[in-house]
Design a protein that fits this description.
This protein has 86 residues and is mainly alpha-helical. The chain has a single domain, classed as Methane Monooxygenase Hydroxylase, Chain G, domain 1 (Up-down Bundle), CATH 1.20.58. The chain is 87% helix and 0% strand. Helix 1 packs antiparallel against helix 2 and helix 2 runs antiparallel to helix 3. It is elongated.
């Protein structure tokens, strides 16, 4: 465990960032799942709305650093292919 004041602060900051990143990644997974469920149901309007929300969530996570920019682009591309396919 850290002993110096600055090291203790870094531990606190790292824990806070870890929880925030985890929440953001969880939100991305939830948005992806909701889109996939609506796409599988066959409702095109609902699927488009879910895709829009998923894009927004993915972009926000990438902007905040929870996801790498290329990972975000790959996720969005895969989701859009799902919509186009079905």
């Amino acid at each position: 465990m850290a002993n110096h004041k600055s090291a203790l602060k870094r531990v606190r900051i790292a824990e806070e960032r870890r929880t925030q990143n985890r929440a953001r990644k969880s939100a991305v997974h939830t948005a992806e799942r909701r889109f996939l469920e609506s796409a599988a149901a066959g409702d095109a309007d609902k699927a488009r709305e879910a895709l829009r929300r998923a894009y927004s969530t993915i972009d926000h996570a990438a902007q905040k650093g929870a996801l790498h920019a290329n990972t975000a682009a790959r996720k969005k591309a895969r989701l859009s292919r799902k919509l186009a396919a079905g």
